[in-house]
Amino acid sequence: MIQALLFIALSSALLLYPYWVYRRVELPIASSRWLALIRASVLLILLALLFNLHIPVGDSGNPKGEGWVLLDASISMLAGEDELTPWDRAIERSRELIEEGWKVFTFGEVVNPFSLNEMDSGSSPKDANTLLAPALKYAAEGGTRSVRVLSDLRLQDRVALYATLEELPIDVTYEGFGGNVRNGGISAFEVEDAVLPGSTILSRIEMHGLRADSAELTIRAEGVEVVSLKVDLPEAGLANLLELPIEAPNVEGRIRYTAHLQVDGDVFTSDDEAVEYGIVGNEENALVLISLKPDWEPRHLLSVLGDVTGLPVTGYLRAGPDKFVSLGKALARSTPVDTSRVRSAIDGATLVVLHGLDGSSDSWTLGLIEKSMRAILLPADSSGAAIAGLNTEVSRGGEWYVSGDLPPSPLSGDLAGTTFLGLPPLTDLLIPLNKEETRSPMRAQLRGTGASEAVLYLDD
Question: pTM of this prediction?
Answer without folding.
Answer: 0.54
